[in-house]
From TrEMBL:
<dbReference type="InterPro" id="IPR011051">
    <property type="entry name" value="RmlC_Cupin_sf"/>
</dbReference>
<feature type="domain" description="Pirin C-terminal">
    <location>
        <begin position="192"/>
        <end position="289"/>
    </location>
</feature>
<dbReference type="Pfam" id="PF05726">
    <property type="entry name" value="Pirin_C"/>
</dbReference>
<dbReference type="Pfam" id="PF02678">
    <property type="entry name" value="Pirin"/>
</dbReference>
<dbReference type="InterPro" id="IPR003829">
    <property type="entry name" value="Pirin_N_dom"/>
</dbReference>
<protein>
    <submittedName>
        <fullName>Pirin family protein</fullName>
    </submittedName>
</protein>
<dbReference type="InterPro" id="IPR014710">
    <property type="entry name" value="RmlC-like_jellyroll"/>
</dbReference>
<feature type="region of interest" description="Disordered">
    <location>
        <begin position="1"/>
        <end position="20"/>
    </location>
</feature>
<dbReference type="InterPro" id="IPR012093">
    <property type="entry name" value="Pirin"/>
</dbReference>
<comment type="similarity">
    <text>Belongs to the pirin family.</text>
</comment>
<dbReference type="InterPro" id="IPR008778">
    <property type="entry name" value="Pirin_C_dom"/>
</dbReference>
<feature type="domain" description="Pirin N-terminal">
    <location>
        <begin position="45"/>
        <end position="139"/>
    </location>
</feature>
Amino acid sequence: MSNLDLRPTPTRCGGNRHTGPVRELQPGKQVPLGESTLVRRLLPNLGRRMVGAWCFVDHYGPDDIADEPGMQVPPHPHIGLQTVSWLRAGEVLHRDSLGSLQTVRPGELGLMTAGRAIAHSEESPRHHPDVLHGAQLWVALPDAHRATAPAFEHHADLPVVTGGGGLRATVFMGELAGAASPGTTYTPLVGADLALAAGTDARLPLDPDFEYAALTIAGAPEVDGVPLTPGSLLYLGCGRTDLPVRAAEAGDLLLLGGEPFEEEIVMWWNFVGRTGDEIAAARAAWNAGGEGFGTVRGYAGDRLLAPELPPVPLKPRGRAR
């Protein structure tokens, strides 16, 4: 997934500032993506830049695309991160400069590790389902793995946790309640889809060393007593051993968490780095022809050029604002 903002601001993230359990409700921001998709951007936002190593969260849909092209994101570059594609409805066709060609469907994990450099595109197939609904997320890579070789993984068989009370959790990244996703991770984290039946009243076990946030995908569940609506993010802090979840009607949540990310990063456009010079060099390389990023073949359109850098230096900074 790309950040298509033509005037992206530098995002200074990371650093050691831990909190105990909190309930901070963060509204999303409407952002256009590609030709016909509007997303709700939950991370980064004015109040919260990261949750563990999760540094970017877009929630889109449900959108009726029966007579529309759907998602159309041209070839674009990434460094220093992983992209996580998670669908509730519809299909997304992934192409990348490694030669990967994969259709990702609901309940399947599409995981791309950019590492030192990769390029990819995402589009709704020509003959696609009528509804598109899902989330695109980024995970910042720790410094020791930022130069790892790029890779793409597709996992259709993911572990499920059922703890009673009407809750069913599909673990798509990391580990939750003893269930581990097959997706490759580089920091301790978790990403899980929580399907809530009508009348759900459950407590989900958590790791007290992780910080967590919950994103409502559908319905109006209560998380730790806070009612949520679709497209809102509830930051929950650290120090929790479990999480109460209730739902009068059926609903769906994404639970994101991880050990607080201690490193400072600079996130600008589709790059995650450590210095402004690194970001500028990646931008220049991509716009000059993409040397090092490879070529995405088969997409019917031009690649996406990086916008102008901001007039101020890009500098890393910690979580404290």
